[in-house]
Structures are given as C-alpha cells and as structure tokens.
Request: fold
Amino acid sequence: MGGTSLSGLLARTLVGALSSCFLFSDISFAEEQIPVTVIIARNAAVTETIPVVGSFVAREEVQVHTLNQGKAIELILVEVGQFVAQGQPLAMLDATEALMLLDKNSVSIRRAKAAFEVEASRLELAGVSEAQSRKVLERSRALQPKGAVSQQLLDEHENAHARALAELGLARQSLALAEADAALIARERREIELTIERSTVRAPKAGLVLRRAARLGAMTSDTGGPLFVIARDGSVEFVAQVTETSFMRLGEGMPAGITLAGHGGTIAGVLRLNAAELDPVTRSGEVRIELENAEGLKPGAFARGSINIAARRNILLPGSAVKTMSGASTVLVVTDGVVRSRPVTVGARQDGFAEIVGGIADGEMVVLKSGGFLKADEKVRPVIAASERPSADHLAAATVIESYEVAR
Reply:
C-alpha cells in the first residue's frame, strides 16, 4: 500500500515538472514573436486629378450700349442683381429733340400729301387734254386727203397734240417727284421714331444684371463703356488658370469638382472649354468648367476645384508603410509570421497614401509602419489595424483616392 502511494506521488511530480517545462517553453516562444501592426493590401479606385484655383464668372457677358449718342440719361429702371427679361427697359434717354422733329415731320407729311394730290390732279387734266388733242388730230388727218381740212389746220392740230403730250410728261414727272418727296419724308419719320424707340435702352438678352455704368444725367458716348453688363440667362461657370504642364494633359469633357467656402458639398462639373493658346508671360492657360448646378452661385466668388484626368485601380497603402531611400521604395511584407522586405514601384502620393503600381499583390499583409526596428526574416505576431481611409475633403490635391478598403 505504502509503495504504491510513493510511486504515484513520484509519477505526479514528474508529470507536473514536464508540464511546467512545456508551458515555460510556449511562453518564451510567444514572447519571441514581436507584435506588429499590419494592414491588408487591397486594390482601390484611384483618380488622378489636377488642382485648380479660380472664380465663378458669367458664361457669356452681354454688353448693353445705345446708338443714341450725346443724350442725357433721364431714368434708370433696373439695378445690379436683378434678373431681366429680353426686351425689358433698362434706362430712358432724353428724347425731347426727337419728339420735336417728329412734330415737324408730321407737318411735312401733310404738305407732301397735299402736293402729291395737286400733281395727281394736274396729271389727270394733262391726260384729258392729250386725249382730246389726239382725237382732233386723228380726225383732221382723216379729212385732209378729202380736202375738208387744210394743211395749215392739220399742222395746228399736230402742234396742239405735241404740246398736250409734253404737258402730260411734265405732269407725270411732277407727280413722281411729289411721290419721292413723300417717301423721303416717310423714311425720315421712321428714323425719328427709331431714335425715340432707342431712347428706351432695352435688354438684348434675358439674364442677370452684373454691372451698371449708367448714371442719371450722364451723356451717352460712343467712346464710353457699356451702360449695363448682363450675364446671359444668369448662367455661371468656373474659370481658372492652369500651368503649362497640367494644361497639356487636359481635354474637353473631363469631369471636375468645385468646392466653395460656405457651400456644402462639391459642385460637379465638366471641362467645357480650354484656351487655344498659353499666355507667353505666365505660361498658363485658361480653362472653363460647366457646372451641373449653379443655383445661388455669384460671379466673382473664389473657389477651388480639381479636374479628373485619369482613373485606374491599384494597391493603396498608407505612406508610413512605404520606405524610400535613394529613390528606391520598399515595404515590409509579413508571410507566415515572418517579415520580408519587398521592393515596390510607387505611383502617385496623396493625403498620406501611396499608390503601389507594382511589387504588392491584393490581399498581402504589409507592416503599417516601415520602421528600422524590424529586420528581414524576423518572426512577428501581426495585428491587423483598423481601416485607414483618406480624407473626404481631398478634391484640391493631385490624386483623389475614391475608396480604400482594409480587411479586418
């Protein structure tokens, strides 16, 4: 009985000692694995953009002038900021002189009408006289061979008819002259009426009144600037100057986004027009972006934007995961708990993220901070980091990262 108890006690002691040894070995092995924060490399959408800075302007400015020069401005009917319809009166000019000329023209028209009627009556009388003299001449010519009419009487009748024809021609010319005078006076009246009509300055196109140079009492002049400037249809777009390098990469139809202080969200747009040439002094070119929704935007307001020039999908890593020395970039990849250095090709960098063009495959585990404390082939215990996504406010940067996903 005693021998059996002693043997059992020795056996239990040995088992306990062995268990303690294995447990200590496991703990030591676990302690040798350095915990390292890692991320899972994932393909993400990358949009390369060109940042632009500019302001809102009217898509088309309409300058309002008047053809009535040397006239005083008597009344101003609209102010800056008002939306006007096509043909709406904007200002009134002094038309006193034109109204006086219109009254004189009315008298001239009555005189011309009376003169025309007189000449028409003279033409009618001349026509009757010519007809009568012609009948007498024809009768005399018929009777003269029979001896009933002498040659002298026939000559008198021929002379009378010739005078009647001359009077008829003169009457016709006088009537034509009277008619021409009446037409001239009528044209003068139309010109006077047009001058009076032009005394009301009207909007040639509908739109928003941007500027007003018209002042009460000021005299109009062909050497002065426009009386009003109107943004046609109130249409507003974004205009910016782009450097030569960026300008050469732009093309019409490229999508864009504009951000404005105090305006929530991003205003979508499309590159509508880029300049045909660069400024030889600044080496920059102008671009115009058509906006999808310009409601509430004011010309002259400063804004920032970006134009999307390329879209692709590549691996995106936080910049801390990429180590660059002497132009060469590397990352630390964890495979089966072992760290290995991997050369990579870096594309665009933006908002603390780097685009990896080559060297890393989707799903590989990369050390979040490529520091100098890790060595190649070192055993580590990977700890997957939380998702690190780029800032939502990134439209003014050179590369926009649309999405970035990290496996948890």
Summary: The chain has four domains: 33-48+311-401, 51-58+235-310, 61-93+200-230, 96-198.
